[in-house]
Design brief:
Blueprint (H helix, E strand, L loop, with lengths): L4 H25 L11 H14 L8 H20 L3 H15 L1 H8 L10 H12 L4 H19 L19
Helix pairs in contact: 2-3, 2-4, 2-6, 3-7
């Protein structure tokens, strides 16, 4: 059976209409993705594992106070990231996307199981590896995580006394 030019063009136009209708139905039934950074699910679990590794020795030792401190640092970190430009938020979102994805997490961090099962020693070893890695991209990712966590910790005035910071000058406040 030989296909004529006319039937080929008709089939192509019909296929384009079906694809356009499918795209319209998809957009109507699925809400648009949020613009900006979203810290949820496995990414939040990753932060709950990373925060204690970076803040080792600073967090409270009592279990409930420790979990509360980790949760508040994670929330302040989330708010900090939301204050960054959208392009930077997207880069941080991409980093957390890689850390949340099982195969990428195994390959990049060496942590074979989920973040909720990761030990402080495993996370500390991985962070140390990224801190001194030969690839500048991984060193930059480490610095971003490090600075975001420490900045979020010390953005709470209750933590200033530990480093001898008296707070901003009264004249500037």
């Amino acid at each position: 059976m030989e296909t004529s030019r006319r039937s080929f063009l008709k089939a192509g136009a019909l296929a384009a209409l079906v694809l356009a209708a499918g795209g319209g139905i998809y957009r109507a039934t699925h809400p648009p993705a949020p613009k900006g950074f979203v810290l949820d699910g496995e990414a939040r679990d990753a932060m709950h594992a990373i925060v204690p590794a970076i803040l080792a020795g600073v967090l409270p030792t009592e279990a409930q106070a420790r979990q509360q401190a980790i949760g508040s640092v994670t929330e302040r970190l989330h708010q900090t990231i939301l204050g960054l430009p959208l392009a930077t938020q997207q880069e941080v979102q991409d980093l957390f996307g890689l850390l949340a994805l099982g195969p990428a997490r195994r390959l990049l961090t060496g942590i074979p199981h989920g973040w909720t099962e990761a030990t402080d020693a495993e996370v500390t070893d991985w962070l140390q590896d990224w801190r001194t890695h030969r690839l500048a991209l991984l060193r930059t990712a480490y610095q971003a995580l490090h600075d975001l966590v420490l900045g979020s910790w010390y953005s709470d005035a209750a933590n200033w006394a530990a480093i001898g910071y008296p707070g901003p000058l009264k004249e500037l406040a």
